[in-house]
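Question thread 4412

I'm putting together a teaching handout and wanted feedback from people who do this every day. The idea is simple: show students a protein as raw sequence, then show them the structure tokens that encode its fold, then repeat with a second protein so they can compare. Below is the first pair exactly as I plan to print it.
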Amino acid sequence: MGGASVFELNEFVDGQRLRLVSIVFIVLSALAMASDGYDLASLGYIAPELLKQWHLKPTALVPAFSAGIVGMMIGGPLLGLLGDRYGRKPMIVAGLTMIAVLDLIITRVRHTGDLVVLRFFVGLMVGGVFPNVAALIAELTPRRIRGKTLVIVSLGVPLGIATPGLVASRLVPIHGWQAILVVGSLIQLLVAVAVALVMPESIKYLVERGGRDRDAMRLARRLRPELAIAEGSRFAAPSARPAAKGSMRPLFAGALVLVTPMLWICQASNQMANFFSLTWLPTLLQAGGASTSSAGATASLFSLGGLGAGVVLVIAIDRLGVVPLVGMFLVGAPLVAGMAITSLSPTAHALVIAGAGFCVTGIQIGLTALLGLLYPTAIRSVGTGGTQAAGRLGALAAPLVGGLLLGLQVSMSKLPFAPAALLVVGGVACIMLTVACRRQFGSFRVGEFSIAQDAVKVPLDPVAGTA
């Protein structure tokens, strides 16, 4: 290739071999997810300490939990749209940096009102990091390992969620609840700096947005050093549809008219169970007589179980697509229902919590991977952000439903029956999603759904004035 060449973009990305630079990108993406996961779980471990120090009822922190989730509902699609417009990398760096700064400010709060406001803005940033990380890694990864890579990256979330419990068990008895946020802030700042210095922008974003050919070619040489890419070479991206970017209309057109709503239902029902565990599980365990240290360690089993699910999905997601998630929904429902049954033996109780985490966190990992596989580049961030926002509706229900049931004097051991029921609903939606993918791709393996032609705004001919 001595002269200028034209490279087909998808073939170029899919032709990569796994190199050290690719592994570095994957690790950084997983760490970014872990940083977000840490913050997702942090308030659940801080809450029991605040309730004791501020002499509050268990329902007093429901507004703070809810504010964070509302922030994520807004931040997912908002920063997803900004990621499609201005790039994935800037949104990731800005989001992680702001989370760290806001968490440090939270260590100084003395009133629930201040906590509510700050948690809203933290949620805004947390919700925006997820879709941009998923989109970035999906667009840097060859198709043959994309599903596995997205699962591996998503393993950062349960790893991050498990960490505050371990920090709480070791540091909170000595340094107080503020230690959870200080440790989290340091992690987030370190990861933000690493992403800013090492992580590239998405090559598909650079090419399809246009105007950054030099940056795209510099990255291309980094990704494919075996190719002699001459000056003046360019990429052809026939699947790009710039006019569709920033619009949610293509998410509900063509074959996606069923896929997107089913993804949203799956996400909402699973997020209800996930956030119920993040919000209430440490409090439920302490209410059952566990100490701060013991409750933190036991609650961490939920996310550690999710790491096991990630290992299974690394093997299964490319071959079986949505099918493993159906089983996780239906098996997870009774396990979630049993998380607060304190009459179980310690070993049985630990297995139930770990099994519930295996299913619930596994579903989340699988859905994150599927979002990177099912949506094309032009709408990947907005598709991921929109699905995450729909999931926040279920997440928002977690603290509200828990607070409502406590107000109705429902016993602690029966609270998890609410998220368990929604997991059954999610299982039905997941079955329908499986059928839709099977019809589209002719097997359990999944691929990208194309953007429907009638969902793309066709520009007017500047001379004739017609399309």
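The second pair follows. I'd like the answer to focus on this one:
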Amino acid sequence: MSINKTCYLELDHISKRFGTVDALKSVSFSAEQGEFLSILGPSGCGKTTALRVVAGLEIQDSGSVFINQKNVSEFNVSKRNVGIVFQSYALFPNLSAAKNIGYGLKGQAGRREIDRTVNELLDLVGLSGMGHKYPAQLSGGQQQRVALARAMALSPDLLLLDEPLSALDARVRVRLRSEIRRLQQRLGVTTIMVTHDQEEALTMADRILVMNEGKVIQKGSPSQIYETPATPFVASFIGSMNFMKEAKKIRQGVYDLCGRSFHVTGKNGTASTVEGDQVTLAIRPEDVMIESPEKRGDNLFPGRIQSMEYRGSLFRLNLCLSTGDRIPSIKADLQTEKIRRFSLEQDMPVTVSLPPDRLLVYDTGCREQTLV
């Protein structure tokens, strides 16, 4: 292959099989110097296997791994200069936080140099003065900071994070993800994070890879992945999505469903260009609007509020569109302030707007192929 000289990490057609299971199916992706790349997907999709192949903890059956343009495909983990943070922290329970962090530096530096490095790292991760404590004396978030400092102690070329926050409670996760991101940006280390948590990926990563069944389904920035998901799987895995099936293409940008015309603008989804083909229309709940009855324009439909679910800053509404029984209830997320301002209540008739620029269109039966 020809190596992309702008990439710091590159995987080229990596395949890995465990018994009869294809964990990775010719997976290719890359990361730029200093980039924070998140691999996102459901359990069993192959994301952790991909990370372990990058680390050298698993050797691929075929394909190549390049770090800083050097082929490291046959190197073991000790020769790849990677720092790894595991979900379970993997700290030595009989060693203090300081000794855990400095463990890998033994034999590579003198005592004074090790102490200086450890103290700098403790300060960097917000644990100054806590180096004497043992893992059992630290909270889960503090233990994860120790694990992160230990991974950074050897100045790795790559930082690999395997579900680093999944064992923590929600409030600690939110705080730590911003701290990890700031630390990564400050150090400029190329970072690969595996997660099944869409919010972590969206808030922390420069770029996201969505995987399913051993393949990369889509690559892109967080906004690209969320706003223009390439397949129904990506659309439903990241965020919430309304799907309206059995629509038919009338002409470019116009689709029929239950005798109603739905207008779509822009390049949204993977719609067929053949008139008469069946398609699936999709829209996110936050893009569904409630308008005044006198409003005029495309994609305005009479409807009724079937139910309302209070979620604090917003309400989740289930709306019934009076356009035929083939259209399921449409979910809409409206700010609580708007609910109060318009005095919206259950069973109230409303005018529902599906903005043409927010509708997505997918071929019916769209397969989860690799779309990049």
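Top answer:
Good format. For the second protein you could add a caption like this: The radius of gyration is 25 Å. The CA atoms of residues 140 and 353 lie 46 Å apart.
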